[in-house]
Write a structure and sequence with these properties.
Strand content of chain A: 15-25%
Number of helices of chain A: 10
Distance between the termini of chain A: 11 Å
Structural class of chain A: alpha/beta
Strand order of the largest sheet of chain A: 3-2-1-4-8
Oligomer: homodimer
Mean pLDDT of chain A: 95
Shape of chain A: globular
Helix content of chain A: 25-40%
């Protein structure tokens, strides 16, 4: 089956023609220019969709439907909200369906990422799984019987917004101590900066122009090289992440927990530590079967996932 | 349809013949005497089942199957574990099926309670729900599409064992800061005892022989009467409980959150406060639709729920 996958982000729009067996057949992208009026951004999506269809060898009639993965939500009434794009209740699905003459399905990017891994990546074959995407925040998805579990208003899956430290660090969602304040890439950077203050000898001070510019990868690299500030920050981060993962295992008892986002590139240096910490604290032997694995899909994850949003929607 | 429901607890075994439309037709109970060998406890269950069938007007052939709700788990291999009964891998289901000549289904008591509310109580009509049973610990159940969500090894639903205060109070499960250390009846009692130390004028000091004997209800009653220690403890408790509930709403976006256990008898005094706190901190308007309600079933909850474990198993 062939779908169009639209990876709609705050900086880029990437669109691909996706064969559910073979993967991406052809893809194109353009900048989002998110400050533009909704109609213009929407038109860019339409133009890209038409262009990828034209430039691939696929007949337009063979395309089942269009899936969109984006950092936003669609209400049950069909209104799309997206802070990054300044959309407060636009009729994206309806508008695209009219202009593209195909069914359109919208889901958030974390759900799309999980569906991509389920079809093409490291969640292949898993019936029950959790996906955590560690980036600026923590995106989440729960898979039950190979489908996204999204709840009554399709607004579930906010795994980054469960209380992890009651009364802890202020979160943008309005509450305090949400998991994403302790397990996102942003959180690791904050921990690195804090430990660097206590370690004037840390390489973090001289690596970039200022401490404000260090990345999560800088801290992981520093921890590998035994820089004391990086080692301490990475240790705290792994402790938090493991404790968060165990909570989800106790609740949902998934077959696999898949970790995405740039941090998952840290590989066994991260995963060996997290797996060991989780195994030390499992609730019962029945909770100790869960595999903790990195996401497989990298650059094309957004397009592949968005196409699978369409497949799941059908 | 008619089922046998077995409410198997550490102190009592209660068994009822349950009509899925009309409720309990006849019930009987006996002490568990949990120190006895497994075979004897199992025989007591068999005897009670045979007795309720004999003493009800129901023909044995019209009974579909037998459901058991208990503070334990059955592994996918059919071995039952229950700390309260000192069972470490007994073949309860197989043994009962042989002696009763009926199919037997086993689930934990929190799942059974949720299924009881779903069929006979305040979760009637809910497709997506969460149930929290606040007692010595916190039992949990997630309902998706009117079925218990139990995960890969059927070991999910441990909603009391998600991290709520990372590094917080030691939990019996081995980890620290689990939600049940802050939102169980036991937790409320601890908070009452702690605040009583700071309030020598509190009625908690004279209510019972010692502070060790106060109950969760004593603290709720004291808070109603504006006893300062009780007010402070109850306020903290409601704050914790609300924050825990919002986490589950953000994750699972359920239609209803049902609270069971003795504490739910506190009624609007508890629920008005919890609802207000939750509404003040919802993640998006889509997360603000969830109803937070008390459990309806009281004394017969165990038998009704166990019978619905059988119904769900069929």
């Amino acid at each position: 089956m062939i779908y169009i996958g639209v990876d709609l982000g705050g900086t880029h729009i990437a669109v691909g023609v996706v064969d559910s067996e073979k993967g991406i057949l052809h893809k194109e992208e353009c900048p989002t220019l998110a400050h533009r009026p909704y109609e213009e951004v929407m038109q860019s999506i339409v133009d890209l969709c038409k262009s990828v269809i034209k430039n691939s060898d696929v007949n337009v009639d063979s395309i089942e439907s269009v899936g969109i993965g984006m950092p936003g939500i669609e209400t049950p009434e069909g209104l799309t909200h997206c802070k990054n794009l300044f959309w407060h209740g636009v009729t994206l699905r309806k508008d695209l369906e009219k202009l593209l003459e195909k069914s359109v399905y919208i889901d958030n990017d974390a759900h799309a990422a999980a569906l991509g891994e389920l079809e093409f990546g490291n969640l292949k074959g898993a019936d029950e799984a959790i996906m955590l995407t560690l980036g600026t925040g923590v995106g989440g998805a729960m898979i039950v019987n190979r489908r996204i579990l999204s709840g009554y208003n399709h607004a579930g899956g906010e795994l980054g917004h469960v209380t992890f430290v009651h009364g802890g660090i202020q979160c943008a969602c309005g509450r305090k101590g949400c998991l994403e304040k302790y397990t996102s890439a942003t959180a690791l950077i904050r921990m690195g900066q804090e430990y660097a203050q206590k370690h004037p000898e840390s390489k973090l001070h001289t690596l970039k122009g200022s401490l404000d510019e260090i990345s999560a990868k800088d801290i992981v690299d520093g921890a590998r090289e035994k820089d004391a500030a990086c080692v301490a920050a990475f240790e705290d981060f792994c402790e938090y992440l493991s404790d968060g993962i165990i909570s989800f295992i106790n609740m949902l008892n998934p077959q696999k927990v898949c970790i995405g986002g740039g941090l998952s590139n840290a590989g066994d240096f991260l995963f060996d530590k997290v797996r060991k910490k989780c195994t030390e604290r499992y609730f019962s032997p029945l909770h100790n079967d869960t595999e903790i694995i990195p996401a497989l899909l990298k650059n094309d994850a957004g397009i592949l996932g968005a196409a699978m949003v369409a497949k799941q929607g059908e």
